[in-house]
Amino acid sequence: MSILIKNGRIITASADYEADIYIQGESIAAIGKNLNYEADEVIDASGKLVFPGGIDPHVHLDMPFMGTFSSDDYSTGTLAALHGGTTMVIDFVLQTQGKSLYNALEEWQGRSNGNCFGDYSFHMAVTDFNKDTKKEIVEMIEKEGITSFKTFMAYKGALMIDDGQMVGLMKEVKKHGGLVTVHATNGDMIDKLIAKHKEEGKLSPLYHYLSQPEVTEAEASGRFTDMADYTGVPGYIVHMTCEGALNAVRRSTVRNQKVFVETCIQYLILDASLYEKDFEGAKWVMSPPLREKKDQKALWAGLNQGLVQVVGTDHCPFKWEQKLMGKDDFSKIPNGHPAIENRMELLFSEGVNKGKISLNKYVEVTSTNAAKIFGMFPRKGSIGIGSDADLVIFDPNEKHTLSAETHHMNVDYSGYEGWEVTGKCKTIVLRGKVAIHNGEVKINKGYGQFIKRGTTSHVV
User: Fold this and answer.
1) What contacts 24+ positions apart, CB below 8 Å, involve 401-404?
2) Cis peptide, bond prior to residue 64, ω within 30 of zero
3) Could you count the other beta carbons within 10 Å of the beta carbon of residue 7?
4) Among residues 353, 423, 393, which one has the least CA distance to residue 48?
5) Which of 2, 82, 103, 151 is geometrically suited to a Cys-Cys bond with 99, CB 3.0 to 4.6 A?
6) Confidence tier at 458 by pLDDT (50, 70, 90)
7) For the whole model, what pTM was predicted?
8) pLDDT by residue (tens digit) across 35-75?
9) Alpha carbon of 106 to those of 144, 147, 326: distances in Å?
């Protein structure tokens, strides 16, 4: 199959120009003005923007959590992502303490294989670093193409590793060219605050937020950057929410250290006042929680300063009946928020349209930087000859309203209900096939491929 996209305004992380794109098979074959190719399909992109397909490097699909599973599986989640312009996601395989990394990988493959509409990869979350796990690191990197390793500084007894294990993992991952990512919050402090609030009978969703004050994230972020500096491993902090944590990274630059930072769309545009909506606040119970207006300001500035490289979602949806598990106790509310479909359009509307970031910065933080950091560039995150033909044809002027009634995520509410957005994903091309056109699905489940990744070889 071949596709010719005519007259689009092509936006990459570094360029902005009008041209045609000729796609042959799964790759981009030619880019230029007035291309004269015969194609099986011609798409007129006049008046529209053409971006590289979005990459969301932080999602949790079909994830076991608190006795239930996140409500989007690999089928519904990757399809919803495509509707919103995200052609590739990176999910997290969670090692069970006492079991091997391969045991966890096989469990996640059992849920993902053959079920994805969009392309995907995995991070390996190491929850039990020991001499056996250590031997598996090189196999994950060199054999499986899983080159990033997630760690938790919270959730003691299930996911958290101590600082000694963290340093040991960092040294091993560095040896083989991988990357260590982190959920950076001080789990001990948070656990004490949760227990204190529960003892005092303070059980509403507001106390989820008050159990995770800014200092818990700022302290852990600083500790992580110190350990990464000591070991020399490339470090990446996921879902950063606040000014204090960003300042910990800012301080690390004084010693010429590079730490990659991801924030999520919700932390840029929502704030902690939502937790005051009595139990409805459970819709936004996630960890770390939403923060204050001053933190939004810091994160937008961090994007423009190059301190924050990626905007993801931490998409981990739960239906309302699942959230109700915590109606009498905030600590029993499943943590997570649906956003995989909304990220690209919300960031364009709230960021580009409101003059907070440029079009080039938008492409950087939604696609190109993630491709570089996670070892997929220039195959992904790029509009270039030989790159995968993953493209979003985007109408920058179309207004629409976000709602649970119209979204494709498998969840019965929206964190953005009634939000008017300017900018709409119209046509999504994935590896040379039109996947979505005007809301209509054109590919079958199973078209999405597992993408083996290389090491972080590109400086962002």
Assistant:
1) 402/342, 402/345, 402/346
2) no
3) 16
4) 393
5) 103
6) low
7) 0.98
8) 999 999 999 999 999 999 999 999 999 999 888 999 999 99
9) 11, 17, 31
